[in-house]
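Whiteboard transcription, Tuesday session. T.W. wrote the structure tokens on the left side:
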């Protein structure tokens, strides 16, 4: 992974930032410059935002040849989509609400269904975000507390019932990219085997109050079909089309412990002491979060380079 990120910097990202004059010399103490990447084809599978020579902090070249130390990165499917989104931005609702979907266990997944850190992730977000609505999967078959509440189980219907009224939606669960049909890529909720929340199921959804969706799940920005790489058919794009102008996604399988840490740090940077959330700062908040984790684990980019910000 480190070799790929170094090659990506030398071949593509470094020359672009040099041409733009973003050399990192004016970043400290000032607003970070921001770049929107409109990648396509095989390039869309690569983490342009994390390109660079990530080495030990004792290396004299540390922080001189990396995208994270020069710009804030976002992704957009096309320049036209970015222009449209800016021209059709609506005022946010007076009272922000948050939907938190937590799947610490996943029915039907015997060997890799448990996500030990999801409960911690959901608890932290409940305390931090405004007016949280929690849909939480029971952690065991014997746990009937949620079942008695009915609509608190994270089914696709329950999620769709709440999406129209919330400004922020956070999903802490498994995600899966379909090998041949990207429209069938899905988030694995309680009823994923019977009524899955797929890319296709989000197509008819149109949300007026949506501001930010955080997909704390695996491979939500990944398309397996090489024939459809240019079409941006994945879960991150589907949430954008549904009405979320800001979406946090992932390019590959992520670690649930670090995903929980990233989510907590990300929202800490977005909220104030009164739980007011500035979603327009999502790209900067994620950049600061990932950059901080990179500083702790510079030689393990597989743990932090997957997370990206997409802006419709």
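and on the right, the sequence the group agreed on:
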């Amino acid at each position: 992974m480190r070799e790929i990120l170094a090659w990506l910097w030398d071949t593509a990202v470094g020359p672009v930032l040099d041409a733009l004059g973003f050399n990192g010399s004016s970043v400290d103490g000032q607003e970070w410059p921001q770049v929107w990447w409109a990648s396509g084809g095989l390039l869309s599978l690569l983490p342009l935002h994390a390109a660079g020579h990530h080495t030990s902090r004792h290396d004299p070249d540390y922080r001189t040849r990396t995208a994270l130390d020069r710009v804030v990165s976002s992704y957009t499917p096309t320049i036209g989509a970015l222009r449209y989104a800016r021209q059709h931005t609506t005022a946010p609702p007076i009272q922000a609400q948050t939907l938190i979907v937590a799947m610490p266990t996943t029915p039907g997944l015997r060997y890799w269904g448990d996500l030990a850190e999801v409960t911690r992730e959901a608890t932290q977000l409940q305390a931090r975000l405004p007016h949280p609505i929690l849909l939480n999967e029971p952690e065991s078959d014997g746990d009937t507390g949620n079942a008695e509440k009915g609509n608190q189980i994270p089914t696709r219907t329950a999620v769709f019932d709440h999406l129209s009224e919330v400004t922020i939606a956070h999903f802490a669960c498994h995600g899966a990219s379909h090998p041949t049909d990207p429209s069938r890529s899905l988030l694995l909720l309680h009823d994923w085997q019977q009524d899955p929340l797929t890319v296709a199921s989000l197509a008819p959804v149109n949300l007026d109050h949506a501001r930010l969706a955080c997909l704390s799940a695996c491979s939500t920005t990944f398309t397996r079909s090489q024939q459809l790489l240019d079409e941006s058919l994945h879960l991150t794009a589907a949430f954008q089309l549904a009405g979320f102008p800001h979406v946090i996604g992932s390019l590959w399988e992520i670690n649930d412990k670090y995903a929980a840490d990233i989510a907590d740090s990300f929202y800490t940077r977005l909220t104030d002491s009164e739980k007011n959330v500035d979603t327009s700062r999502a790209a900067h908040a994620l950049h600061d979060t990932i950059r901080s984790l990179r500083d702790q684990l510079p030689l393990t980019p597989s743990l932090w380079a997957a997370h990206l910000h997409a802006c419709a």
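Someone added at the bottom: The radius of gyration is 19 Å.
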